[in-house]
Amino acid sequence: MPENLKRKADNHGKAKKKKFRSDGTPIWGKRHIDGPGVWISCVKGKEKQTVGEMYDLFESVASEIWPVGGASEKDNEDPEEETELSIEDQIAKEVSEMKRPRSEQRFGGSQLLVDIFSFVQWPILIRSIVIFISCKLPVDPVELVVKYVHSVKETGATRSRYAHRLVPVSGTCPANLNEMKSLCEKVFGAFFEKEQGKSFTYKIELRLRNHTTLARPAIIQHIASWVPEGNSVSLDNPEIFILVEIFKSVCGVSVVRDYYKLAKFNVLELANKTKAEAEPAVAIAEPEQP
Q1: Which of 138, 132, 131 is nearest to 112 (CA)?
Q2: What residues contact residue 143 under an 8 Å CB cut-off, 6+ apart?
Q3: CA distance 47 to 20
Q4: Cα distance between residue 260 and residue 177, in whole Å
Q5: What is the DSSP letter of 11?
Q6: Which residue among 4, 41, 274, 282 is least crowded, i.e. fewest CB within 10 A of its CB?
Q7: In this predicted model, what pLDDT tens digit does every residue of 193-206 receive, in sequence order?
Q8: Would you say the C-alpha torsion 177, 181, 183, 188 has a positive or negative sign?
Q9: Which residues are bridge partners to 224 per DSSP?
C-alpha cells in the first residue's frame, strides 16, 4: 500500500477511536440542541410559521413574568429633550434604535429571551414536525409553558394556528446514561431545593423519538434511582411529573405539576375542551319511531 494511503487509513482509525470513551460511552461533538428550552410539535410544512408565532407568543408571555426595567426608561424620557435635538440628531437616534437587536428593541436592552429554533425533524409516519426553541436567562421554560397553557385553559384561545403540544425541558444533554445522570441530579436538585425538602409522589413520563440506543425500561429504572430519597412512585395519582424527552441523541428533562389536568400540554386539545365546556348543552330530540 502506498505510504500516503496508509497514513490516511491510520488517521481514519485514530479518528474513530476518539469517538468513544474507555467505558464505551460515545464522546459527543457539538449538538444541534442545547440548553433549557421547549419542544413543540406542529403541523408539517408550517414550521416557519410556527417558529414566528411561538417566538412572538413566548416573548409576550415572558415579558409578563420577567418584566424589564429598560422598557419603562423609554416611557420616562423627557419629551422636551427630544424636541431640543436637531433634525440630524433625531434621525441619527432613530437609525441607532433601528440597528438594535430585536430583543433589545422590545425589552429595553435586556437579554434575549428566546433563541429561535435550532433543530427540525420529520418523524417517520407522523404528519407533524418537532421544533426546539431554546431559552436564555432569565426565562424558565417550565414556568413559561405552564403560564401559557393555563391561559389557553382559561380562554380557549391558543394564539397559534399550528402548534400542538409543548414540552418544556430545564436542561438538555447527550442521550447516554452518564450525561443523563448529571442532568437529572441537577434538575431534581433545583426543584426539590425550592420545595425545602418536601416529599412528593411522582411519575416518569418518557417519550422516545428516533432513538434505539437505550431501552425504555432501562431508562425509567435509572431515572427512578436518581430521584432523591423520600419520594415515591405513583402511577395513578402523582403530585409531580418527571418529563423526559429523548430525540435521537439528545435528552431533555424537567419536573412539572398538573400534567394530566392540562392535557399533557397539548394546547390544541385543551382549547377544544375548554370551548366544548363553554358551549351550552343542546338537547337533541330523538326521532319518533314509526
Answers
A1: 138
A2: 65
A3: 35
A4: 27
A5: H
A6: 282
A7: 999 879 999 999 99
A8: positive
A9: none
Query: CA separation (Å) from 29 to 8, 234, 244, 250?
Result: 22, 37, 22, 12
**Residues ≥6 apart with Cβ < 8 Å to 51:** 116, 117, 131, 133
State how far the Cα of 220 lies from the Cα of 206, in Å rounded to an integer.
Answer: 8
Q: What's the Rg (C-alpha) of the chain?
A: 25
Q: How would residue 244 be classed by pLDDT, with cut points 50, 70 and 90?
A: very high
Cell of 170: 430545564
Predicted TM-score (pTM) of the model is 0.70
Least confident of 75-89, 133-147, 154-168, 249-263: 75-89
The alpha carbon dihedral of 237, 261, 42, 175 has a sign of negative
Task: Report the C-alpha gap between 242 and 190 in whole angstroms.
Answer: 13
3-state secondary structure of 237: coil
Question: Residues with Cβ < 8 Å from 71, sequence gap 6 or more?
Answer: 63, 106, 107, 108
pLDDT at 133: 87
- Tell me the three cell numbers of residue 202: 411522582
Q: What is the mean pLDDT of residues 227-246?
A: 95
The cell for 62 is 415572558
The rounded distance, in Å, linking the Cα atoms of 3 and 5 is 5
d(CA 114, CA 202): 29
The better pLDDT of the pair 255, 10 is held by: 255
pLDDT tens digit sequence for 133-153: 888 888 899 999 999 999 999
Alpha-carbon gap, residue 248 to 130, rounded angstroms: 12
Quote the mean pLDDT of the chain.
77
Which long-range contacts does 97-103 make (Cβ < 8 Å, 24+ apart)? none
